[in-house]
Amino acid sequence: MTQPAEKAYYRFVVLFFNCLLTFGSYFCFDIPSVLQDQFQGNLTCPNATVINGTVDCVEGLGMSPQQYNLLYAIYAWTNAVVVVLAGFLIDKLGNRFGVFLFSFLCVLGSSLFALGSHFKGSPYLLPLMLTGRLLFGSGNGSLTIVQNRITAFWFKGKELALAFGLTLAFSRLGSVLNFFLTQKFEEKYGIQWTLWGGALLCVLGFTSAIVVSTLDKIGMKQLGLDGAIQEGSRKVRIQDVKLLSLRYWLLVLTIMFFYNGIFPFIADASKFIQDKYSGYNQKEAAYIAGAVYDSSLVLSASVGILIDYVGLRGIFALACAVLTLPVFGLLAFTFVPPLVSTIWLGVTYSFAAASMWPSIPLVVPQATLGTAMGLATSIQMVGIGVSNLVVGQILGTKSSETKIPLWRWQRMMIFMLANTISCIVTSVLLNIVDHRQGGTLNKTTKRSEQAERDSDREPLNQGEEEQHEDDEDEAGRSRSINS
């Protein structure tokens, strides 16, 4: 008799609740971007005047641009440190351990971040908010690893890119709603209640963690794989990192350089649009900055289906990097409406996310996928953290009551261009190495599915892996694919 877990509807139910894991945390992540004026605004505005319908002084938390960018840098750096250990622990202790621990850290971190806003004007504000971002970063980055691991398990050899695309779409739905709703909510209820509202959305992720953990446990038992994966997980060693292939490391560097141009830009995009282009208020600038996520939300599922159908993940990764170059050129040196650039960036981001991240399960075994995802996320976040600090230095350390000079913004965009060029270089090398090692990343759908199944069999059936009597050709093929 066919078990429910063997049917398509079951894995899509798992996917739905798996997607909800990060909906609230992605909403919370970019709240500072939407409220950048409030975070960097003056503590008081005793002599505020209105010029052309705009108040010349914004009351806020009194942060400098450098302190504001530190909120993003500490999130990224915490991710960089924690996700490596988190990935290894997930491989050793399982998905259910991960979803509970890391969704709880998201709730705790976002709550502490909101609490810090109550200490405006005191020396406790920045330490509390940085600690909150630290805990939030520890949870959110690691939670994404568990989410990807669950997605890879249930959809490997099936609708993998579609599943990753839908996961990204749900996460970006949180980001999009943040850009559309947070400004209005803050105007009505203030920054403190706005931050507490974000923390409440993280509770939704914790609730989803309970549901997806239950579904995952029941499904794995019905499929008879729970014991086999646990056995494989117990044999995972930290030394296995040395077995990860050159393709994996080039893929990770490609991801890092691409995202170095995305998240640091979005963090300051609202302020950039107001400073460079005339006629945009804070709300309109936030909408335009959020168009990156709007495009991603609309395109993620369809792009995932396309990549599932045609394969060519390595080619898509290279094309995304090349097509991103003009975006930062337009932003730096022209006055083309910024909406053109943000939509354009959102399109390339959608293709990059649907082609790069789903490629990792193709080149690592299931039993060590958490460790591999953790390392990838760690290196990505190191890059983003360094980029946030560099951007903070470029933009200056003074309060942002007045406009940041255009030449500073241009230097920031040139830095983004440098990261994109580096992404092109690594993606070219990735395609060359992949071609020499069998072309797994650029195989068409049917052959790609076979490669996924081959790479999945070894770690899930440790007994078979230990049968060293297998012929040398099979062993060589297995090592090539699984590492």
Describe it for me?
- The protein is mostly helical.
- Helices cover 77% and strands 1% of the residues.
- The protein is built from 22 helices and two strands.
- The protein has helices at residues 8-20, 23-29, 31-34, 36-40, 65-93, 95-116, 125-155, 160-189, 191-223, 226-234, 246-260, 263-276, 282-289, 291-310, 313-333, 338-356, 360-363, 369-395, 406-436, 445-460, 462-465, 472-482; strands at residues 50-51, 54-55.
- The chain has a two-stranded antiparallel ribbon with strand order 1-2.
- Strand 1 and strand 2 form a beta hairpin.
- Helix 1 runs antiparallel to helix 9, helix 8 runs antiparallel to helix 14 (291-310) and helix 11 (246-260) runs antiparallel to helix 19 (406-436).
- Residues 455-483 have low confidence and may be disordered.
In brief, what are we looking at here?
The protein is mainly α. It has helices spanning 8-20, 23-29, 31-34, 36-40, 65-93, 95-116, 125-155, 160-189, 191-223, 226-234, 246-260, 263-276, 282-289, 291-310, 313-333, 338-356, 360-363, 369-395, 406-436, 445-460, 462-465, 472-482, and strands at residues 50-51, 54-55.
Strand residue content: under 5%
| Number of E-type strands | 2
Q: Helix count?
A: 22
H/E order of the elements?
HHHHEEHHHHHHHHHHHHHHHHHH
Mean pLDDT: 80
Any idea what the radius of gyration is?
23 Å
Please estimate the helix content: over 70%
Largest beta-sheet details: 2 strands, antiparallel
Q: State the secondary-structure class.
A: mainly alpha
Widest sheet, order of strands:
1-2
Distance between the termini: 36 Å
As residue ranges, the low-confidence spans are 455-483
